[in-house]
Design brief:
Blueprint: E1 2-8, E2 12-18, E3 24-31, H1 34-41, E4 48-53, H2 58-65, E5 72-75, H3 81-84, H4 91-103, H5 115-136, H6 140-143, H7 146-155, H8 164-190, H9 195-201, H10 209-219, H11 228-234, E6 239-244, E7 247-253, H12 259-271, H13 277-287, H14 292-313, H15 323-327
Parallel strand pairs: 1-4, 4-5
Antiparallel strand pairs: 1-2, 2-3, 6-7
Helix pairs in contact: 5-8, 5-10, 9-10, 10-12, 12-14, 13-14
Length: 328
Amino acid sequence: MYYIGLDVHKKTISYCVKDASGQVHQEGQIGATRWELDGWMKTLPQPWTVAMEATIFTGWIYDHLLPHAQQVKVAHPLMLRAIAAAKKKNDRIDAGKIADCLRCDFLPECHMASTAIRDRRRTLRYRHLLVRQMVLSHNKRRLHKVGYFRELLSSNAEVNESIRPLLRVSRDSIVRLQKTEYALVSSLQRDPLLAERIKRLRTVPGVGPITALTWALEMGEVSRFPSIREAISYCGLCGDEKSSADKVMRTPLSKQRNKHIQRVLVEAAKLAPRQNHDLALVYEREKQKGNANRATLAVARKMVAYLLAVDRGQRDFVPFADPRSVAA
């Protein structure tokens, strides 16, 4: 088996090919194009496995190499301390170190979602960008409501004629963004790959279409989370712990998280106690300790447990029935 480390950039890819003993067989640099990757793969000794660091350019390279390699692995960049802490650092050395980590089974591998999930996730994140643009529009809540806008242009003589076309353009842009956002969400909800899963997830209290879509596309396969704690950690609903000897220091919410699912869950947790008695009890119990934000996080963690159970069981959410109330 030959082990290949790739240091991926926007225009170039540095590579290093090593055997099981660590001897270098090939080193060099190629262009970051599919055509050059095809030519480069024909020169590789067989069989081979490849690893690369996770970057914004990793996805298409991963998909292109996957049919030809024994394995394609993606490394977690924060955990590649051998590269980040090196005194001498360049593309050739980085590729060699990734090959060594792969060869010695020290590579901190991260999850790589399927191509279908990543394509749909890109659509959902683009929808979030559109929503941000709408929110950033100046005075959207008043000036850009349809009724108020029409009344303003028809009855307010103080609006200068030179400003009216600009106001119409601004209003039209917001309408287009709203229609595009609605079309994107509707297409994802109707997608055969997601439709049944979204329907089940929406049976959880406080979970609407955006929360369900974000959970399905950002979490991917929930089987990769062996416990609820790991799912909560991935969602960024817990803090860091830095302990040494008898000193224990806990930090606020960790920055090592999926920020997209974290944002959506926190927003959903603010409304969920109004829709479900059990979540309301969780919120009130935590709020009595003196911090409303921690109470919201407690509700979000409970919602993660509910969503994880629904996904694992492949069935709709069923509220827990208290045996004492049933007996009564």
